[in-house]
Structures are given as C-alpha cells and as structure tokens.
Write a structure and sequence with these properties.
By secondary structure, the chain is of the alpha/beta class. 34% of the residues lie in helices and 20% in strands. It is globular and about 50 Å long.
C-alpha cells in the first residue's frame, strides 16, 4: 500500500477521511449499523420523525458562494438552504457549477468568497457527517473491494471487517470477491465507490454522477438504496444527468446554470418547462 509521510496516500475523499480521523483522534465511530434488509421499521420511524419534526433551521446553508478558478467563476454568488432528511437532485449542463458546488459542500473546494454551513458547522468541522462520492471512482485498482474499504475504514477509526462487508453487500457486491478493483466493470466500480461513501454512516451524502456508466437494473437498485437512506433521515445530494431515475425519490430538483441556481421544483417535468419558459434555454432534462 502506498503511503506518504504525515498524510495517507489516498485519492480524493480519503484525504477528507484522514482529516476527520485527526480531528477525532481516531476514535471509534459509534452509531447505528443497520443492514438495508432490516431497514423497514427503522425507515418508517425515521421518515415519520423527519416529516413531523417542528420547523427548524435548514441542515445546509450556502451564502453568497463564489468560487473562481483564475478568471473563470464556477460559482457566482450561490445562496440557498437545504432541509435535512431530503434528497436534492442537482441538474444542469456541463460547466453549470454542479460538481464545484458539491465539492464546496464537502470542504474540498475552498470558496473564493461566501460561506457553507452544515448543521451549523463548517464543512471541515462537519467532515464526519459527510460522505462524498466523486465522479471518478478514486479507488485503488491493485486492491480488492474489501481491501479498499478496509483501508478507508481505518481512516475513520472503524475496526474489523463487519461494517465493510455490510456496505459492500448493501450495494449488491460480494465482500468475498478477491478480484482487484482494476478488473471491475464500470458499474461495479460505481457501486463500490458508493459503498465507500456510506461506510462511516454519514448524515449527508454528496454523490457526483453515481449512475454514470451503470446499467439500468443496477441504477434502479442504487436508487432504491438511496431512497431507503433518505427515508432513514439522511440528507442526500445527487448530481446527475439522469434525473428521471430519481423521479418519485428526489424531494426536489435543483437546476444550475452558469454557476447559479436558477430554479427549484418538486416536479421534474414542471420545473424543466418553467426553466425553458423563463429563460428560453435548454433545461438539461435527459
């Protein structure tokens, strides 16, 4: 396994996991370890509590968020509030700012100006509450799925293989599969990347194109897993060009254009038509 002095040699979100382990002193994670097959009663209680809870401050607040790369502004003064226990689908054409917004929420893209608040904390302080799935899988090709998750589990202070095996099964893979990840199909890599994102039981999931290059059956299974997690009270953000997969699951669809949020709607078709009517531009619907 590759290592580097002081900071584990891990791609993408592994660095964020390492930050979390440093902030917590590597303490063992505690909390529910519920297998998806046992969700039913837990999901019902979680969803009811979410729906019946009194009006509270939003889980995530973005205030005048600006992110510049040289002279190019990827985010142009984004201000928005997002409620807890909901699934937010982020839509828009390439270059609209979707991934940059997701990375800002994860604390991986430092804003040029503006602020992000997650449960009243900065993304860095809230890193244990965040699970991030990047568009590329960012897994170690020479290691098996279990070896990959075992490594990331260590960054979060999760001991033993039981949790790793649990999340691998949850995404429809076999924890006993010894094949290196480099030999996985693209769909299998996406599933394992999702397993890594939910490994530490985060409150907030940030998923960038999770259904990319995934066959229709596997994508529906992934959507069903996300629905179960949403119903259990998780807050989920999904950047996707396959918005129709999330109809009936997403609580709102958020359209971005030129680094700004230009429309939000609970209805995919109605929201897209309104965007076309208001701006005369393509809605980005699949």
């Amino acid at each position: 396994m590759r290592t580097a002095p002081g900071v584990p040699d891990t791609p993408g979100f592994g660095l964020l996991g390492w930050r979390c382990s440093q902030l917590s002193g590597g303490a063992q994670l505690r909390g529910p370890r519920v297998h998806p097959s046992c969700y039913s009663f837990t999901l019902i209680l979680g969803r009811i509590s979410t729906l019946l809870m009194p009006e509270t401050a939003p889980a995530i607040t973005v205030t005048n968020l600006i992110k510049q790369f040289g002279r190019f502004a990827a985010l142009r003064g984004v201000t928005a509030e997002f409620d807890a226990g909901r699934c937010h689908a982020i839509l828009g054409d390439n270059g609209a700012g979707k991934t940059t917004l997701l990375r800002a929420l994860a604390g991986l893209a430092h804003p040029t100006r503006g602020a992000v608040s997650i449960f009243g904390k900065t993304p860095k302080a809230a890193c244990r509450d965040l699970g991030y799935m990047a568009h590329p899988s960012l897994l170690y090709d020479e290691m098996s799925g279990m070896e990959n998750l075992r490594y990331f589990a260590g960054l979060y202070g999760i001991a033993g293989d039981s949790r790793c095996a649990e999340v691998i099964r949850a995404v429809g893979l076999d924890p006993e599969l010894a094949r290196p990840v480099g030999q996985y199909s693209q769909g299998m890599r996406q599933r394992l990347s999702l397993a890594r994102a939910i490994l530490h039981d985060p409150k907030v999931l940030l998923l960038d194109e999770p259904f990319s290059n995934v066959d229709a059956h596997s994508a529906r299974e992934m959507v069903a897993l996300l629905k179960g997690m949403r119903d259990a009270g998780k807050t989920i953000f999904v950047v996707t060009h396959q918005a129709s997969l999330l109809e009936g699951v997403a609580d709102e669809f958020v359209w971005m254009q030129a680094g700004q949020i230009v429309n939000r709607s609970v209805d995919l078709a109605a929201g897209g038509k309104k965007l076309d009517s208001d701006q005369g531009t393509p809605s980005g619907l699949p």
